[in-house]
Design brief:
This protein is of the alpha+beta class. The protein has 12 helices and 14 strands. Helix content is 41%, strand content 20%. A 7-stranded mixed sheet has the order 6-14-11-7-10-9-8. Strands 1, 2, 5, 12 and 13 form a 5-stranded mixed sheet that branches. The longest helix has 35 residues.
Length: 391
């Protein structure tokens, strides 16, 4: 009750302060000395009242916490959780013990635990936490993962997606609904295998102070990030993702074979339909960024606005992202794009697996680890993104 009264007082003070300023504004004059003193007094009262409300709310919240029951009734479903956690921990311990020492040197109980995660290629599925950490690191590292829409599924079958807009129209009373083409421009996300081999010396694996999990995870992330950065931008869709440059239409072809102008950047902006521009991002290769940062408008102002703190750099009020796999400024090269990249769908499929190779690199005193995962990516709506290329 007291809080409500204080809130009403706060609202009244705000109206009075606003009225004082509006009255002076209507008369196109500054506040008088008396009005300034009156405003300052109301502002001080406003701040004190607001602080009192915050204290009251904090005290009320504390009272609710103190009166809450100290224990909650157990549920039947909770009884299975410790067993699930124990099973995950046992699998994780057995897996990384096998990674460090060799899976052939595990005890019978550890071998039994790992049988739940044998992959089709003869290796073992990595622990869920390991894969989750790798994917999380990739989402932070790979620019297209930040720009696009990432989904994760346990399935390794194709996923059909809408690649066009449905047909909508105004309908008269008792009128027929417009029909959308049954094909509806569908596109599919596949499950392409991606992977490589990580090498580690036997000395490193035998060193008790080396965190083998962190070592392998870091190298796996770096290798996958390099692969994905290229495939999500320029991949041809044959046994790999389809890069957005393959599907997106060309919005602007520059007049120069190795240059770009500020007007051409403006043309790129307007080559994308208005509904998409509100969520769009400019993307350029590193070398193109260097050239575009030097461009000025008709008033001699740089079109590139540097961001402050965590804010991104901007062009025409839209953020800029560097994609290293886009082309340089050269004849016929696609060096940039603009659009709503949320229509680029990336699917992480199934579970990552790892196979330890004991003999293949033994002559060099090393052990190999074949790591593989499955994913795909494709721009589902081509009109949402437009590219810019040199003549």
């Amino acid at each position: 009750m007291r809080i409500q009264v204080l809130r009403e007082k706060l609202g009244g003070l705000q109206k009075q302060m606003r009225g004082l300023l509006d009255e002076a504004g209507t008369q196109a004059r500054e506040l008088t000395t008396e009005e300034v003193a009156k405003y300052d007094a109301m502002e001080k009262d406003f701040d004190n009242t607001k602080a009192t409300i915050e204290r009251e709310e904090k005290l009320a919240k504390l009272q609710v916490e103190l009166e809450a029951p100290t224990s909650t009734p157990s549920r039947a479903s909770d009884a299975t959780k410790p067993n699930e956690d124990e099973a995950k921990k046992a699998y994780r311990d057995a897996f990384f013990t096998g990674v460090a020492r060799g899976f052939d040197r595990l005890g019978s109980e550890q071998v039994r635990v790992l049988q739940t995660g044998v992959s089709a290629d003869g290796g073992y599925l990595v622990p869920t936490e390991f894969q989750t950490t790798v994917i999380s690191a990739l989402n932070d590292t790979v620019a297209m993962r930040r720009l696009g829409t990432v989904i994760r599924t346990s399935s390794t079958t194709k996923i059909p997606l809408a690649g066009a807009k449905p047909t909508f129209a105004y309908i008269s009373e008792n009128g027929a609904y417009p029909e959308t083409d049954v094909k509806f421009g569908q596109v599919s996300l596949d499950a392409y295998k991606a992977g490589g081999t990580i090498l580690a010396s036997r000395e490193l694996l035998n060193d008790a102070f080396i965190d083998v999990e962190t070592y392998i995870r870091g190298l796996a992330t770096a290798g996958l990030a390099e692969l994905e950065e290229g495939s999500f931008v320029t991949g041809n869709g044959t046994a790999k993702p389809t890069g957005f440059t393959v599907t997106a239409g060309v919005g602007v072809t520059t007049a120069g074979t190795a240059a770009v102008t500020s007007d051409e950047i403006l043309d790129l902006y307007y080559s994308v339909k208005a509904p998409y521009r509100a969520k769009s991002t400019f993307t350029f290769s590193d070398i193109a960024c260097k050239a575009i940062r030097k461009l000025k408008d008709a008033n001699g102002q740089y079109i590139w606005a540097d961001g402050f703190g965590k804010a991104p750099d901007m062009i025409l009020g839209r953020p800029v992202e560097t994609l290293t796999k886009l082309g340089a400024l050269a004849t016929g090269s696609i060096f940039g794009a603009f659009g709503d990249f949320s229509y680029y769908e990336i699917a992480d499929r199934g579970q990552m697996s790892m196979l330890r190779l004991n003999e293949l690199y033994a002559g060099n005193g090393q052990v190999g680890f074949q790591v593989d995962t499955r994913n795909d990516g494709i721009l589902t709506l081509s009109e949402a993104v437009k590219t810019i290329k040199n003549a």
